[in-house]
Specification:
Shape: globular
Helix content: 55-70%
Largest sheet: 4 strands, mixed
Number of strands: 10
Structural class: alpha+beta
Distance between the termini: 42 Å
Strand content: 5-15%
Radius of gyration: 25 Å
Number of helices: 12
Low-confidence stretches: none
Mean pLDDT: 83
Bound molecules: zinc ion
Length: 360
Amino acid sequence: VRIARIFGIDIEADWSWVLALLLFTWAFSGADSPFIRLDPGMRVAIAFACSVLLFVSVLIHEFAHAAVARRYHLAVNGVHLFIFGGVARIAGSMASEGQEAMIAAAGPLSTLVVAAFSLLCALLVSSEAVHELFVYLTYANIALALFNMLPAYPLDGGRVAHAISWGISGSRERATEVTIGVSRVFGIAFILGGALLAASGNLVSGVTIVFVGWFVIAAARGEWLRAAVLGRLGHVTAGQIADPPLLVLPPNATCEEARAAMAARRAQCAPVTLGNRLLGTVSIDDLERANDPQGYVGSVMTRTEDLGAISSELPVPQAIDRLSSSGRRELAVVSGDELAGFISQATLSRLLAYERKHRS
Ligand SMILES: [Zn+2]
């Protein structure tokens, strides 16, 4: 659900977010409450305010990533909040190590700014309850920033570490290998540390840390798989792996007919072809914008020359780079002026799934 749009960046929250808000409020007002010294009524109110402000902190953090990415003209498909936090959806791969480092570092830096601001509020307010609230937020944001700077995937520090080792080695692939290795070491350390802590009686903290370690190892594996797939597909061409279109439309189909045909196949986008020649593509949005339902799709489509279509001879790794830097959902793959198919995020997921299953 979209909740706001700030500077052209969509903020979306999933319903689990409401549940998280209630859970946090409950945790912050229970027996282990950091606000235990306040009287019960006030404690619940402060616990609720604290939960809301923690989510605002996460939002600011993700928004900082998104805003810097936008400055580098990368496509940003919004900030999404869910039960464990948030994620800034940035399409496009980083053109340089500097860009990657800046985008990754923006998050923890903004969190430190929020911590400083909370500290200032804590010093300025006169109410004891509000003072405690801001003291807690100061600590929480410092902890969040430090945790995020650990040099392990999928944390921001992992991206910074990748950018630094990219800068030193001059090779993006080598940097990925190094960062994955470091992430695994951190993951294992978290799991061992967590297990020791759990064994010594701190069950909840111990299990949480084991979980974090598992999360880090899973992320490192994901990055490794991605790198392995891209490394292995250097000699495979975009034309070989492109997905065929769900349907093709002739240029003289009416917008009304096109919409019905696309709805029947649940297609977001369809190519318009004459014989085998690709003329352009038409999306559901194009059709919704068209004011004459009897008008031809040929007059509302995006023409081939404006599609940023890629050649079917292009190797898969470059094709995927082109897809992500275009910020589009899918890219047409053409052989001469004929349509060979499309590559999309779904194509990449299919390649990953295949590699996961058939890796020897
Ligand atoms: Zn971040």
